[in-house]
Amino acid sequence: LNAIAVLSYLFVGWAAGSIGHVDASVFSSQDSREYREYADWIFGARPSSVASNWRPFLYPLLLGLAERVGGVRGVWLLNVAVWFTALNFCASATYRFVKSEWAAALVFLVLATNLSLMMLTYQGLTEPTVIALLAIWVYGLSRLTPRPTPGQIAWLLLPVTLAVVVKPEFEFLLAVLAVIVVVGIIRSDARGLATGVFAACLIPVGIQLWVMAHFNGYFGLSNVGTRALREYYLPRLDVAIGQSSDLEAARLRMADISYSDA
Predict the structure, then answer these.
(1) Could you tell me the sign of the dihedral formed by the alpha carbons of 39, 44, 46, 51, in that order?
(2) What residues contact 189, with CB distance under 8 A and at least 6 apart?
(3) Can you give the residue ranges of every domain in the chain?
(4) Which of 60, 245, 257, 91 is nearest to 165 (CA)?
(5) DSSP string, 16-78
(6) How far apart are CA 12 and CA 118, in angstroms?
(7) Tens of pLDDT along 170-207?
(8) Model confidence over 207-232: pLDDT tens digits?
């Protein structure tokens, strides 16, 4: 199956002309240039970065490492690697859920022939990484038992924690999972070790909060997360519970709520 994925990827890249223009495409978007700027700041190549106030640290860190090891093509190869990671973990999770090799192969092939996913690997953007982390999380779900072991807690929680420090919008999913995991720990036979694993899985979020507080004077995940909270999630919740008549009125109400209050 991976051989089919390789052939599919090479054919699509050749047909679209993307493989021959990797150097020009990886940092062609404004978002990718912001991630690169942040990466340069992390590795000491620039004195400051406005993007550190706007973007979480994990993807710029990975991007910066990849670029320093392999240049622009290193960033592309990083995205290709996480694309393959997503394919294999989704297929493995499917097999664990339904116990069917045919179903697992079908899921793999559907993802391996998805043009949008393949073309995203030619951009220095977060989407391939997020997809891979979600695939790993789904695989973690497939391993879960009513009384989770420390290993199961790590599989379930860490991918979402890492997704939060790539795209803060996943903070709500993390909050729900944290509650579920705490309940599972209470029912677990290895509470001490499970609690330690739970705390360790939250370290990336702690690092992001420290970066924001120390370098930007703001205690929160990022301005992206704040905006998503105020302009998307909370207004919809406000309308759903009948506090506002429409989304625009709800956004005006949310505009005065601080991130900590939210």
Answers:
(1) positive
(2) 147
(3) 2-218, 222-262
(4) 60
(5) HT-GGGHHHHTT-SHHHHHHHHHHHHHTTSSS--GGGGTS-SHHHHHHHHHHHHHHHHHHHHH
(6) 8
(7) 888 999 999 988 888 887 777 788 899 999 999 999 99
(8) 998 888 888 777 777 766 566 666 55
